[in-house]
From TrEMBL, chain A:
Annotated organism of origin: Arabidopsis thaliana x Arabidopsis arenosa
InterPro entries: AUX/IAA_dom, AUX_IAA, PB1-like
Region described as Disordered: spans on this chain: 1-74
Presence of the UniProt keyword Repressor in the record: yes
Subcellular localization: Nucleus
Keyword annotations from UniProtKB, A to Z: Auxin signaling pathway, Nucleus, Repressor, Transcription, Transcription regulation
Similarity field: Belongs to the Aux/IAA family.
Name the record gives this protein: Auxin-responsive protein
Keyword Repressor in annotation: yes
Example GO biological process: auxin-activated signaling pathway
UniProtKB/TrEMBL annotation, chain B:
Gene Ontology molecular functions: auxin binding
Domain of life where this protein originates: Eukaryota
Protein name: F-box domain
Subcellular location(s) per record: Nucleus
CDD domains xrefs: F-box_AtTIR1-like (cd22159)
GO cellular-component term (any): nucleus
This protein's record includes keyword Transcription regulation: no
Organism: Arabidopsis thaliana x Arabidopsis arenosa
Length: 168, 585
């Protein structure tokens, strides 16, 4: 059974009903109907909205190596540090866990981050790494599992000194 | 009338004729011309490896020096052809090894090539010089090592977008220790690291090296070191640019590039950070080809680079270039002939880039030499298409992919019929056309009527009925390859125009409404067409009127092939027998 993008092709495939019972136009085509041209004849299907567009096999016609490159392997986020003259960018995909990320940040901005504890955040150095997540909220780096963090982090900001409370 | 041209004279005349189309015509004149032509043809091209048997080709062209073969249908690039369909190189390699030992060049596209094939090539052709594998799969780096080790005259080794089982970078050390004859090396599709010292030494002992395309595992430091050893390169594919930006790294890179005074083509540039682009400025004025389609660089960094590329003829870029960037291209890159704009976010949900039809209109207006376009865009308008057709009647290849299926002209809400009519009518030299967006049967009437030179046509999510196919198959005089997906036509037009199919190389149809019954009729009616039904389910388990998932029809003189997998059903020519797997399992 051909599975693409974790999705069983059957979900979007040409459906075949009982022998002899089909008229051509009743058959669902493995494509997404847009709001205009086609009548949606598949009354036998649920009235749920059409499958998400990303589920069309082989569409848009881009080779898989392009899809991978553009979406999966690169995840650049801007990094700012309070007091530093310009922003930097890092690729989150280059790191597998928090220690690696923090070390890279420390090297990049020449500082040391304090010791992290779940209860009290970062203590000891006055630098607090924070990030903006998909909802636009500013969070403390380290609270959520790495994978969750790396997929929701939009921006990083290293707060410094008096601006940074030891706990958010 | 009675005078016959001595074959020696004819041979001499033929030595000036390279084009295989011309040679094919020559071979049809009479038997003696056929004989002379076949004995002198050096470069053989087989567009569909199943159209003719390897033995027949080897026998016909004993003096073959170069063989080019294509296997899977084009839509295999987009995962529409299940794995295991076919396209095996082995029978060809085996046949050539036996009959044409002087073969020097092999170029394969979309074929399954095993290590065994590569080892056979290495062992059988003592003057072997050129191996180009494009979109191939089935081999490992061991096979490459065999080629490197054994082919002492190897000039060209290019692995273009292949799927290779990468067992590590050792293969590179198999090239002969003495100086090599390498002119071109492309291993950009391999994943694993090669030892930079091996690469450095190879480059140093390859004085003829002109083209080098590295894989992403090669670092910036590695690149600098290689460029120092090969400043004569005319084509470069960089490795990955992802690295910490250190000031010394930048200036070393800049210097290395500035010493490459003959560089004309640049590609790779994976993960390139905008801060590194200025290192390339020195080579920009000489560049004729630039592939930025893997570089997630945005505006205005892109413009800073492109405005220096006044000689650019070929540009591949992502839609991150935006309309603004294309406007700049239109004013700075006056020599542009080919433009490809790829989507940075192929998943529609994330599409959010300010690239519209206007970008392509800018380039069409500003770049007089533009003749080849591949453009991905969320939506389009008829007006834009009309402008493009009017400004660029010299277009030879026009592939527009409106990413939103069935998207009408977003300003007027009409189908894009008028626009594509203008393209078909206005661009009289059009050889290749891909259409998209909302299209009615009418669009295909125009295309059928006006696209007289179009050889390859790609269609998706279009049309209303059988008329669509009828228009295409009754027009399009030069049509050789037609590939269609998700269009609502059925059996009628296909059966009515069966004879047309023999004038074409192939027809691919997937997710259309063609029934199994029609496939049977077609196959029995047309003995020189292979009608392959590619379907998960045995067609006999369903009524004849039910549509099949995918059909691939191609002309052949070799009869049905014997290597079909379980999911490919070849309709037997004898109606008594019906459907079978002709492969002997």
């Amino acid at each position: 059974m051909e599975v693409t993008n974790g999705l069983n092709l059957k979900d979007t495939e040409l459906r075949l009903g009982l022998p002899g019972a089909q008229e051509e136009q009743q058959l669902e085509v493995s494509c997404v109907r847009s709001n205009n041209k086609r009548k949606n004849n598949d009354s036998t299907e649920e009235s749920a909205p059409p499958p998400a567009k990303t589920q069309i096999v082989g569409w848009p016609p881009v080779r898989s190596n392009r899809k991978n490159n553009n979406n999966k392997n690169v995840s650049y986020v801007k990094v700012s540090m309070d007091g530093a003259p310009y922003l930097r960018k890092i690729d989150l995909k280059m790191y597998k866990n928090y220690p690696e990320l923090l070390k890279a940040l420390e090297n990049m901005f020449k500082f040391t981050v304090g010791e992290y504890s779940e209860r009290e955040g970062y203590k000891g150095s006055g630098f607090v790494p924070t990030y903006e997540d998909k909802d636009g909220d500013w969070m403390l780096v380290g609270d959520v599992p790495w994978d969750m963090f790396s997929s929701s982090c939009q921006k990083l900001r290293i707060m410094k000194g008096s601006e940074a409370p030891t706990a958010l | 009338m009675g005078l016959r041209l001595p074959s020696k004279v004819l041979e001499h005349i033929l030595s000036f004729i390279d084009s295989n189309e011309d040679r094919n015509s020559v071979s049809l004149v009479c038997k003696s011309w056929f004989e002379t032509e076949r004995k002198t043809r050096k470069r053989v091209f087989v567009g569909n490896c199943y159209a003719v048997s390897p033995a027949a080709v080897a026998k016909r062209f004993p003096e073959m020096r170069s063989l080019t073969l294509k296997g899977k249908p084009h839509f295999a690039d987009y995962n529409l052809v299940p794995d295991g369909w076919g396209g095996y190189a082995w029978p060809w390699i085996e046949a050539m090894a036996a009959k044409c030992p002087s073969l020097e060049e092999i170029r394969l596209k979309r074929m399954v090539v095993t290590d065994e094939c590569l080892e056979k090539i290495a062992a059988s052709f003592k003057d072997f010089e050129v191996l180009v594998l494009t979109s191939c799969e089935g081999f490992s780096t061991d096979g490459i090592a065999a080629i490197a080790a054994t082919c002492r005259n190897l000039r060209v080794l290019e692995l273009r977008e292949c799927i290779v089982e990468d067992l590590g970078g050792d293969w590179l050390s198999y090239f002969p220790e003495t100086s090599t004859s390498l002119v071109s090396l492309d291993f950009s599709c391999l994943d694993s690291e090669v030892k930079i010292s091996d690469l450095e030494r190879l480059v140093s002992r390859s004085p003829n090296l002109k083209s080098l395309k590295l894989n992403p595992a090669v670092t910036l430091d590695g690149l600098v070191s290689l460029l120092r050893r090969a400043p004569q390169l005319t084509e470069l594919g960089t490795g990955s640019f992802a690295a910490q930006l250190k000031p010394e790294a930048f200036s070393k890179l800049s210097e290395a590039f500035s010493n490459c005074k003959q560089l004309q083509s640049l590609s790779g540039l994976w993960d390139v950070l905008p801060e590194y682009l200025p290192a390339l400025y020195s080579v920009c004025p000489g560049l004729t080809s630039l592939n930025l389609s893997y570089a997630t660089v945005r505006m205005p960094d892109l413009v800073e680079l492109l405005r220096r590329c006044s000689k650019l003829q070929k540009l591949w870029v992502m839609d991150l270039i935006e309309d603004k960037g294309l406007e700049a291209v239109a004013s700075y890159c006056k020599e542009l002939q080919e433009l490809r704009v790829f989507p940075s976010a192929p998943d529609l949900d994330e599409a959010n880039i300010p690239l519209t039809e206007q970008g392509l209109v800018f380039v069409s207006k500003g770049c007089r030499k533009l003749e080849s376009v591949l453009y991905f865009c969320v939506q389009f308008t008829n007006a834009a298409l009309l402008t493009i057709a009017r400004k660029r009647p010299n277009l030879k290849c026009f592939r527009l992919c409106v990413i939103e299926p069935f998207a009408p002209d977003y300003k007027t809400n009409e189908p894009l019929d008028k626009g594509f009519k203008a393209i078909a009518e206005g661009c009289k030299d059009l050889r290749r056309l891909s259409v998209s967006g909302l299209l009615s049967d009418k669009a295909f009437k125009y295309i059928g009527k006006h696209a007289k030179k179009v050889r390859m046509l790609s269609i998706a999510f279009a049309g209303d009925s059988d008329l669509m196919l009828h228009h295409l198959l009754s027009g399009c005089e030069s049509l050789k390859k037609l590939e269609i997906r998700d269009c609502p036509f059925g059996d009628t037009a296909l059966l009515e125009h069966a004879a047309k199919l023999e004038t074409m190389r192939s027809l691919w149809m997937s997710s259309c409404f063609v029934s199994f019954g029609a496939c049977k009729i077609l196959s029995q009616k047309m003995p020189r067409l292979n009608v392959e039904v590619i379907d998960e389910h045995p067609p006999e388990t369903r009524p004849e009127s039910s549509p099949v998932e995918r059909i691939y029809i191609y002309r052949t003189v070799a009869g049905p092939r014997m290597d079909t997998p379980e999911f490919v059903w070849t309709i037997h020519k004898n109606p008594e027998i019906g459907v079978s797997h002709l492969a002997i399992k």
